[in-house]
Structures are given as C-alpha cells and as structure tokens.
Amino acid sequence: MGSGARVAGGIVSVLVVTAAVILHYLENSGSGGHLRMVENIEQLREDYRKQNKTCFILGATGETGKALLKEIVKGNIFSKVTTIGRRKLDFEDDSYKDVVQEVVDFEKLDEYSSVFQDHDVGFCCLGTTKAKAGEAGFIRVDHDYVLKSAQLAKAGGCKHFNLESSNGADKGSSFLYLKVKGQVEAEVQELDFDRYTIFRPAVLMVDRQESRPAEWIARKFLSPISYLFPTAMSVPVTAVARAMVNTAVTPSDQKVELLDNKAIHRIGKLEEKKKS
Q1: Of 6, 24, 49, 142, whose CA is between 20 and 30 Å from 77?
Q2: What's the predicted TM-score (pTM) here?
Q3: Which residues are designated catalytic?
C-alpha cells in the first residue's frame, strides 16, 4: 500500500470515528423535554376521553397531519375532530365519518374565524419547503399562516396549542428554515395560550407521496444510522403523531413545553412500551 493510500485510509478512519462520536453524543444528549414521565398512558387516554374535549388539526394533508389524524381517530381521543385546510380529504375508512372538514383560504383567514371557534386543543402541522414554494411562499406558509391560525385559535377559545416545528429551530439562525421556525415559535408563545407545546422533530422517516428528492436521499442515508442511533438524527412520523396525542392527554404544570427529538421518541413510544 502506497503512502497516499495509507493517508487516505487514515483520514477515512478519523472521519468514521468522529462521526461515531458525534452520533453517540447526539444520541445521549438533550433534555428529553419537560413532560413528566408517564407509566400508564392508556389510563390517561381513557380519562381524557371522558372530558369530551374537541380539537382541530391544521395541515392534515401532510405526512405528520395524516398520521396524527389517524392516531386521534383510532384512539377516539376527542368528542369532535375538525380538520382545517385548503381542500377536503377523501376517506375510505368509515371510522373517519364523523370528522368535520373545514375548507379555508389561508390568504383570507380572517374571513374564516368561525371555524376556529370552540376547540379545546389545536394541532398545527402546517409546513412547506423553500424548494417547493420559494422563499416568500415558505415564509407565508410556515410563518404567516401558522401565526394567523394561532391568533384565531386563541381568540376562539383554544386552551392548548401544539406546534410541529423543527430540530434546530432558532430565531437567530442564519439559515432561513430554522430562523423562520424559531420566529414563529416565539411569536405564538406571545399569544399566551393556557398550554403551549412545541415539537422539534429531526428528519421525519416516512415515504412521502410528494416527491422530495433531498429528503428521500436523507432517509436512505439515515436508515442504517437510525438503527444504531435511533434518536440522534431522525424520527418516524408515526412516533411524532403518537407523541402529540400522548402529550395532549398528559396533565402538565408547564405553561410552555419544548419537546426535542429524544423526547418525541420517548413519548411517542409510551404505548408501545406498555404493550411489549
């Protein structure tokens, strides 16, 4: 083996070790969120059902929103479930027959304030990408639509607002995506909901119907990594949905809850642990 090959091999070895150290750190760092540990999530779900609370879901056509709606309907968590979006969804399963669907124009949300009335809990899974909508379109959806919806929900009596954000969200970030996510997190917090929960998932592991080549490549790359370091860089979209529901049914004395990727994994798997 020549000296060049040995040097190259040494560099690769260093990179592999460095990557392993970083992944190990990510896997074992983080607060895990502020939601207290829960042993009997099924009992909490049952107790919550008896309260006959209502909810709405924004972004039910997206991957997280679809998984969340399925989890809520399957668990019969709320007495009334409303989706708010650009278009109606086609349901083949009769279990969705009681879901109320409200179609709105997000550019004229003030005209649809009535659809935000009388919901106890709100789930916001709205989001797009700069690649799909352009910079202005991305800001309009991920900031303007989200904030306006939250304002209308607050005015309509919503007590608990749940926002799907992103790992690394930071209003001071130099990256547009993370900056916008951080800004809207902070501005929704200023609305002073009785309870406000922010979810910051890492890369969502899901086979999207919508084509996003960069995400597809990321998922293929992260699949083997997520096997060894499950909470470091990714999370199944089903775990995010279960975490959102499990958080909603769990009493908390925290007015603002920030749940990182590790917390989402933990809370999203509470039901699985009970069944195992």
Answers
A1: 142
A2: 0.81
A3: 177, 181
